[in-house]
């Protein structure tokens, strides 16, 4: 690219770099979703203090495997999709038909050097957390090293995007169309809350941000769906 093609070179040193294929495709899809779907984001938090204790104990007892908060969130999402099946649907482009799905494939956003990819973990209703965690690790590694084929990124019902290992207190994820909702997760925070006997106790709280298609889902159901995930996580066993 010549300097004449760089409109910023007139103001100071500025490099022109070609945008990679994956980032261009992802950018087009994100823009289409953001500009055609009326997004609303609902925020909540899950008390995962007891789950974290169980998870650490499970990981210590199983040195060859690792259960992550993300794998448990996949199971929590499946449970919420079953409780509120409107979230497990897709709307036709003309808005006239709603397709209701009876399978439970969950997409996981993976940050790669070439851009964002969303591999789909299939049949999460019949897999345990340990299997889901191992599949996420394998597919995230593959996405970063070799990329993924379209078949590995198709057919999702619902997606999760986790920034929990980096930070943040909440964000507004873009729906992975034709799905109708996506769960964003940010960094667990320890904070004091009032316990059942009135005493203040420190609890581990996981921020949840659910973006949903307001043509399909109403706000009350979004609040119920996010609460379902939070309550599932509060009581979740680790590994299973
Ligand atoms: N809060 C605090 N810590 C968390 C956490 C959370 N919400 N979620 C995970 N962690 C911790 C894990 O416990 C783990 O710590 P240990 O190794 O000490 O156990 C560490 O962070 C890494 O966890 P992980 O390997 O399980 O990774 P993950 O499940 O958090 O995420 C993956 C995996 C592939 C989703 C992630 O690497 C990734 O690519 N995320 C980016 C997604 C993205 O870019 N989204 C933006 C989309 S919008 O543009």
Automatic annotation (TrEMBL):
The organism's superkingdom is given as Bacteria
Entry GO CC: cytoplasm
Spell out the InterPro entries in the cross-references: 2-oxoacid_DH_actylTfrase (IPR001078), 2-oxoacid_DH_E2_comp (IPR050743), CAT-like_dom_sf (IPR023213)
Protein source organism: Sphingomonas tagetis
Q: What is its EC number?
A: 2.3.1.12
What GO biological process terms are annotated to this protein in UniProt? pyruvate decarboxylation to acetyl-CoA
Recorded protein name is Dihydrolipoyllysine-residue acetyltransferase component of pyruvate dehydrogenase complex
Question: Which reactions is this enzyme annotated as catalysing?
Answer: N(6)-[(R)-dihydrolipoyl]-L-lysyl-[protein] + acetyl-CoA = N(6)-[(R)-S(8)-acetyldihydrolipoyl]-L-lysyl-[protein] + CoA
Query: What family does the Swiss-Prot or TrEMBL record give for this protein?
Result: Belongs to the 2-oxoacid dehydrogenase family.
Q: Which residues form the 2-oxoacid dehydrogenase acyltransferase catalytic domain?
A: 14-233
**Free-text function comment from the UniProt entry:** The pyruvate dehydrogenase complex catalyzes the overall conversion of pyruvate to acetyl-CoA and CO(2). It contains multiple copies of three enzymatic components: pyruvate dehydrogenase (E1), dihydrolipoamide acetyltransferase (E2) and lipoamide dehydrogenase (E3).
Q: Which cofactor does it need?
A: (R)-lipoate
* Recorded GO MF terms: dihydrolipoyllysine-residue acetyltransferase activity; lipoic acid binding
Q: Name one Pfam family in it.
A: 2-oxoacid_dh
Q: Which UniProt keywords apply?
A: Acyltransferase, Lipoyl, Transferase
What broad class of enzyme is this? transferase
* Oligomer status and interactors: Forms a 24-polypeptide structural core with octahedral symmetry.
């Amino acid at each position: 690219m010549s300097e004449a093609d760089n409109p910023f070179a007139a103001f100071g040193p500025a490099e022109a770099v070609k945008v990679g294929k994956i980032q261009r495709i992802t950018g087009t899809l994100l823009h289409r979703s953001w500009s055609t779907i009326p997004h609303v984001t609902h925020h909540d938090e899950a008390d995962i203090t007891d789950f974290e204790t169980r998870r650490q104990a499970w990981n210590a007892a199983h040195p060859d495997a690792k259960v992550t908060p993300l794998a448990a969130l996949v199971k929590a999402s499946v449970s919420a999709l079953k409780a509120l099946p409107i979230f497990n649907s897709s709307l036709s482009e003309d808005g006239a038909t709603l397709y209701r799905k009876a399978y439970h494939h969950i997409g996981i956003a993976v940050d790669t050097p070439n851009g964002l990819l969303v591999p789909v973990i299939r049949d999460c209703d019949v897999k345990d957390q340990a299997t889901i965690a191992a599949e996420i690790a394998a597919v995230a590694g593959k996405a970063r090293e070799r990329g993924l084929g379209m078949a590995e990124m198709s057919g999702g019902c619902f997606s999760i995007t986790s920034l929990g290992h980096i930070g943040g207190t909440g964000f507004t994820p873009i729906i992975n169309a034709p799905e109708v909702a996506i769960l964003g997760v940010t960094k667990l925070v320890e904070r004091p809350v009032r316990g059942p006997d009135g005493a203040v106790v420190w609890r581990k709280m996981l921020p949840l941000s659910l973006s949903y298609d307001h043509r399909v889902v109403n706000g009350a159901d979004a609040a119920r769906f996010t609460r379902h995930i939070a309550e599932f996580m509060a009581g979740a066993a680790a590994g299973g």
